Amino acid sequence: MKKQVQLYKNKAESVMRKHPWVFSGAIDLASEDLQDGDVVEVLDSKANFLAVGHFQNATIAVRILSFDNKAIDANFFQKKIENAVQLRRNLNLFRPDNSIMRLIHGEGDGLPGLIVDYYNKVAVIQCHSVGMYRAVEHIAQALHSVLKEEVIAIYNKSSDTLAHKDQMEIKDGYLLGNCPTPHVALENGVKFNIDWINGQKTGFFIDQRENRALLGKYAKGKKVLNTFCYSGGFSLTALKNGASLVHSLDSSAKAIQLTDDNIALNQFESHQSIVADAVEYIKNLPEQYDVIVLDPPAFAKHRDKRHKAIQGYKRLNANALRQIKPGGFLFTFSCSQVIDKYLFTNTVIAAAIEVGRNVRIVEQLHQPADHPISAYHPEGEYLKGLVVYVD
Ligand code: SAH
Q1: Which of 217, 65, 87, 100 is nearest to 146 (CA)?
Q2: 81-88 — which CB contacts under 8 Å span 24+ positions?
Q3: Which of 108, 263, 267, 338 has the fewest C-beta atoms under 10 angstroms from its C-beta?
Q4: Nearest in space to 42 (alpha carbons), one of 76, 8, 73
């Protein structure tokens, strides 16, 4: 018999609006032997079918895969992955000068709990739910069958994201082929060494591609400070576009090594790396810059941390705005999902008022098209940024 969860009366509305999550508090009755990762049918209080999804004993109890009563089998993953890859083709992301993209972005591609990033013929899978982890063979087969010779290796990197699942052994490893790391891939003509095994996340922060490209437009002849640089994405794009000098800063010596290696890989000059805490360093900069990039990790992962996070963003932005050269640009970001674009903008405006300089917002930035937001899951919007011009 199929496993099922039945919702309380009045708890079916969000599912009927096609929101892809069922919270644990909405569940009245459940099959007795439910295990993390099981495929379950979601029923309303009168036992009418609503949806089918992956169960997990957590706040988000069901991640919905289909609102039709269809089997979650090899064919299901094949169709979803075909659709996701077709979007990236239509977005013209597979190009001779670009081989880095997000192929599957969870809810945004109708596959909640699944991330797949693509680096020059290598797909890196990151599962955020046990259900996706259990389906990983189907997912790998579908990726291979859709991408054909465009994929030579598929790596499953889920031990970080499923670390808390101690009742289950989560193993990282290749599901297809094998590819030594670092592996070189291209973003808009810039070469990057990608190491999905030792790097943060799947090895690279793909979500800043278009924002880096925009920095490139303003970089010629400019002196740039790129803070929270990780593997140097913004720095390399600035140098490729003629920046006169770039300083890259990160608190992680490993990240700085990645940046230095990427600079060497592209044979760029006029670059210097700094290992330091950006929050401290920016209080009193030893030099003046035309462009400052602030791309910190999420200051707030939960709503209860929001207030402190806002103060953190305000201080960081105030320090940058106070010291940037007249006629300079601040590229400032937040990837905290609990801080929306209005709150972030107001925080940056508050920082500008505090330092008393004349600033204008000239660009409003967000996540790129390969990180799509499902119309039924507005929470999928997480990355926001501003370009601020300072007189
Ligand atoms: N801008 C990067 C991605 C940033 S990810 C890119 O384009 O790829 C966030 C980075 O901030 C990580 O590399 C992390 O090591 C670094 N970091 C976290 N806390 C920091 C701090 N207090 N000071 C400096 N860097 C920090």
Answers
A1: 87
A2: 81/139, 81/142, 81/143, 81/146, 82/142, 82/146, 83/109, 83/110, 84/109, 84/110, 84/111, 84/116, 85/146, 85/147, 87/370, 87/372, 88/118, 88/370
A3: 267
A4: 8
Distance of CA 296 from the midpoint of ligand 1 (Å): 5
Q: Is 327 in the pocket of ligand 1 (CB under 6 A)?
A: no
In angstroms, rounded to a whole number, what is the distance separating the alpha carbons of residues 31 and 43?
12
Centre of ligand 1 from the C-alpha of residue 207, in Å:
14
Please tell me the pTM assigned to this model: 0.97
Which pLDDT tens digit goes with each residue over 247-298? 999 999 999 999 999 999 999 999 999 999 999 999 999 999 999 999 999 9
Q: Are 235 and 229 in contact (CB under 8 A)?
A: yes
Cα 229 to averaged position of ligand 1 atoms, centre (Å): 5
- Helix ranges (H only) for the chain are 13-16, 74-90, 130-134, 136-147, 209-218, 233-240, 253-265, 278-281, 306-323, 341-355
Ligand 1 touching residue 332 (CB < 6 A) = no
Question: Distance (Å, rounded) from C-alpha 115 to C-alpha 135?
Answer: 13
DSSP 3-state assignment of 315? Answer: helix
